[in-house]
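Review form for a predicted model. The reviewer records the input and the model, then writes brief findings.
Reviewer: anonymous (R2)
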Amino acid sequence: MAFASGSRADRPNIVLVVADDQGWGDVGYQGHPVLKTPHLDEAARSGLRFERFYAQAPVCSPTRATLLTGRHPNRMGVFTWGYPIRPQEITLAKLLREAGYATGHFGKWHLGSVYRASPVHPGRMGFERWVSSPNFFDNNPIFSDEGTAVPFQGESSVVTVQVALEWIRKQAEAGRPFFAMICFGSPHAPHQAAEEDRALYLDQPPALREFYGEITGIDRAFGMLRQALAELGIRENTILWYTSDNGALPKVGSTGGFRGNKGQIYEGGLLVPTFLEWPAKIRTPRVTRVRCCSADIFPTILEIVGIEPPANLPLDGISLVPVIEGKWERRPVPLGFWHYPAPGISTPSAKWMAELLAAQQKGEDLPPDGPSQRAGQLPDPPYPSDQFPGHAAWIEGDWKLHRIETAKGKIRWELYNLEEDPAESTDRAAEEPERLGAMQKRLEAWLRSVVQSLNGADYAGLGESPSLPESKSR
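Model under review:
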C-alpha cells in the first residue's frame, strides 16, 4: 500500500477531529445503553476502529501538545491543563504547511493565548487560518478569528464545524490539499446541550440530559462534516481521524469498565474513542486491538505524506502505517506516560473572549496572559534528572507498570497484565520480580530522556523556529 506520492493532487487531505473529555465508553458503538451517536457509530463501522487508543495524558492541554508534535507533553513543559506549548516546537501544521498544505485550526486551542500578540497562538504554530478558543466553550461562543473576537450563534460543536467547512470548501475548490484540526469544546463541563439534543434524553436525570445532549451535538456536527466531504467530492482521499484528549469524566462519563477517570493514568483516564476513515486506502472496515496513542498521529501523517520527521527532536510516537495496512497485531515498542503534579493554569475562555470583544469594540486590544508571553523560556534552574514526581506508567506488550512518586520522594510500584486484567485490579509486582526490574530500568531511562527535553536539550542546534508568513487562506 503506497502512500507518499510526488504528485500534489494525490496527497490526501487530513482532518483531525478532537473531542474534549469524551471517554472510551461515551459513544453508542461501544455499547452505551443510552447515548445516541449514529454518525460516530457509522464512521467507526466504516473505517479503522482503534479499540486500545490512549490519550497521551489524562487531561486536555498535554494531549493537544502531543497531537501537534508527536512528543510527550512534559518534554515541552505542558504538564497539565492551561500550560502553553513552547514556540520552539516543530508542529505537524508547520511541516505540512511547508510541504504545500493549507492548514487551519478551528475550536479549542488550550495551548496558549489566542490574542493577536500571543507568541503561541495557532498562527504562530503553523496554522495559516485559525478561528479558535483559548479553552473549552459552550453554545453561542466568542472565537478569536486570527486575533479578532467574533461572536457566533449556535450549538458549540455545530458552529465549529460550520466555520471549518467554510474554509474547507475554499481549499477543495482551489484543489489544494489541506490539514484541518477541528477541536470541539464538548463534552467538557459545565454541560449545556442544545434543546434538540437534550430532548432525546428527557427520561434521564438533569445532569445526564445535558452531558448526553452535548455528545449528541458532537455527533450531529460530525455528521455534517462527513456529509460535506462527500458532497465536495473529496471524501475518498481524505483522512478523517477522530479522537479525544483524555478519558472519561467521573460520575457522568463512561470508561467502559476500565479503572480510573480523567486526571488518572489508569486505563479509564487514558483510553479514548478513536477511529480513522480513509476510503481510498481503507476499503474494508476493521477493528484493531494494537495499543496506539496520541503521539502516533504525528509520525503516521508524516509518513503518509512523505515528510521526514524533524531531526534532533525525540518522538514518543511511531508511524501506524503498518496498522492501517493490517500488518501489526501488537505494538513493537513501549508506551510511556507521566502525569506531573503541577497545578493547572486557569484559562476562562468565555471571560477572556468577552473582555477581548469589549476592548476591540472600543478600538483597543489586549496583551496575552503571562504564561503565554513566557512560553519559550527554559527552566532555570533545570529540573533534576533523578527525580520524577507524580504518576508515570510504561506499557510493554500487555504489561503495564505504574511508578507513583510522592512529594516526599517515596516511590510505589504496581504491575498489571492488561490482557488478563484490563481493570488493573490485581497487582503482579511481587510475583514478577524479573519483569518488574527490567521494566523499571526502561521506564526510568525514558523519564530521564523526557527531563533532558524539558530542560531544553532538544533545541540546541535547531536555530530559529521556521518563519511562516501570516497570509490568510480564507
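Findings: The first helix runs from residue 38 to 46.
Further findings: The CA atoms of residues 167 and 474 lie 6 Å apart.
Recommendation: see findings above.
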